[in-house]
Known about the structure:
This protein has one domain (3-126). The protein has 133 residues and is an alpha/beta fold. The chain is built from 5 helices and 3 strands. Helix 3 packs across helix 5. A 3-stranded parallel beta sheet has the order 1-3-2, with helices on one face. The radius of gyration is 14 Å and the shape is globular. The longest helix is centred in the middle third of the chain and has 13 residues, at 71-83. Helices cover 38% and strands 11% of the residues.
Amino acid sequence: MTKMASDLSQHTGITTWRVYERPLPTGYHVLAERLWPRGMRRADLSLDAWPKDLTPSTALRQWFAHDPERWDEFRSRYLTELAAQKEAALTLLAEAAGAPIILLYAAHDQEHNGALVLHDFLGALVGSDPGIS
C-alpha cells in the first residue's frame, strides 16, 4: 500500500458545515468557497486550507447562481472540474492527516451548494484506490 493510500484509508470522515453556524466542529477546516463569506472577518475564521482550485470556477458559480433548477447540471459540470484537480484533492486529503475534514460553505441553501459536491468527490477518492485515474 502506498503512503497516500495508507493516509486515505485512515481518514475519519468528511462533513459539510455552514460557516456562520457556531461553534464549528473540531477537525480540519476547509473553506469550500471561491469567495470569502460575506460579513465574516478573516480573524474570526480559523482555516486549515482554502483550496480555491477545488471550488467551482467563477464562470460555473455565476451560471449556477444558487438556482435549484440548475442543480443537476451544476453538479455534473463541477464534478468535471474536480476530476481535473484530482491531485489537489488527494493533497488536501493527505494534509488533513486523518483528521475529520469540515467543508465550510456560506450558501443559505443546505441542499444545493458546492460543498456537497466536493464532499461527494472527496468521499469517492477516500473510498477508491488513489492510483486509479
